[in-house]
Amino acid sequence: MLPAIVVGIVCALLLLGVSLLAEQLQDVLWEALPDALGVGRFSSLWMIVMLTATGLAVGLVLRTVPGHGGPDPSTTGLVDAPMRPGVVPGLLLVTTLALAGGVSLGPENPITAANVALAFWLGRRFAPGAPGELWVALAAAGTIGALFGTPVAAALILSEVLASQPGPGAFWDRLFAPLAAGTAGALTMSLLAHPSFDLSLPAYSGPHWGDLLSALVIASAGALLGLLAVYAFPVAHRVFTALRHPVLALTLGGLVLGLLGALGGHLTLFKGLDEVKVLAGDPDGWSAGEFAGMAVVKTAALVIAATCGFRGGRIFPAVFVGVSLGLGAHALVDAVPPSLAVSCAVLGVLLAVTRQGWVSLFTAAVLVSDTSVLPLLCAATLPAWLLVTGRAQMQLDGDGKSLR
């Protein structure tokens, strides 16, 4: 219990520290600096300049820091084998720069990798008799619990991992320590930062026959949009790899992200967690075409950011894509409740991007904080999963080919 709680607290504090530092730097880059120069904070010119400069800065840092920020991010998932601890400072630095600079990636992958590396290294030094897999599970659970503000997310994600691994004892015996770490991480983050995923959308009135059809169609549409990103992933990676220079690839990637930001508007920048609350705060403030445009632009930005070399996670940007798509469906057909449309669209996109059923269902549910949508979400999972299962994943092997 004690090591699990300590690991969970430290994982949450590292996530919180990086997030706060990125927010402070974001204020400087996107408020103080453009105001001092007399340039619009989110003008097309400033978005293009800032994203290009962010790509150049991240590229130069990756070129000079020990370990070069770890492996190619297009080949990594949410929880991977521990990297050397010497890589962690550089990884955290480029993650902070990307988050502050407006790159369409979240903190989940690099923060999880950093916490896993540190927990594994310290655990092997101070408790060499404990299996190495334990420290990986504790760090992953603590980070995921802190990211989502609840240990349930950590338990659901790790249940998929642990269920596929042989081991002694009952399943809940193996999940016990990671659940304790996830609880410690979630409580630490909740007490210090009070995170909330609730989008405060209009309350759902309850399932109807027409809602069932809407749920199936919207979740399937989200899965198809996510699959477009998945199949574009290796193509974009080959383009940037052909440049044969990380600094050039990241600078060009930053330029493309700036152009996409100018096309889709400033809400399509950054990881997307704060931006979805802006969209949800006024679900009738944009047309169906504008919502669809933001969903497509954010999808393209996610693919570019994840393949040109930026370090970051894909869950939060994918949530933005789903929220935009769902609100677009509501704007197109007013009879579709916004809470149902958003949760089903997020479910479909996340199933395609993460290929993790539990975390997709959980994230879609917590965004609307309404248990009455759960039966329809479970029904919508079925056609969406049939669309994505067995397909290519948004992760590459060492040869640049999609995993399956």
Describe it for me?
It is a single chain. The chain is mainly α. Helix content is 71%, strand content 0%. The mean pLDDT is 89. The radius of gyration is 20 Å and the shape is globular. The protein is built from 15 helices and no strands.
Number of strands: 0
Give the CA-CA distance, first to last residue.
36 Å
- Specify the biggest β-sheet: none
Can you tell me the overall shape?
globular
The residue fraction in helices comes out at over 70%
Structural class: mainly alpha
Strand content: under 5%
Uncertain segments are none
Number of domains: 2
What is the arithmetic mean of pLDDT? Answer: 89
Q: Mind telling me the C-alpha Rg?
A: 20 Å
Number of helices: 15
Order of helices and strands: HHHHHHHHHHHHHHH
Give the gist of this structure.
The protein has 15 helices and no strands.
Q: What key attributes describe this structure?
A:
globular; Clc chloride channel; 71% helix; 15 helices; 404 residues; mainly alpha
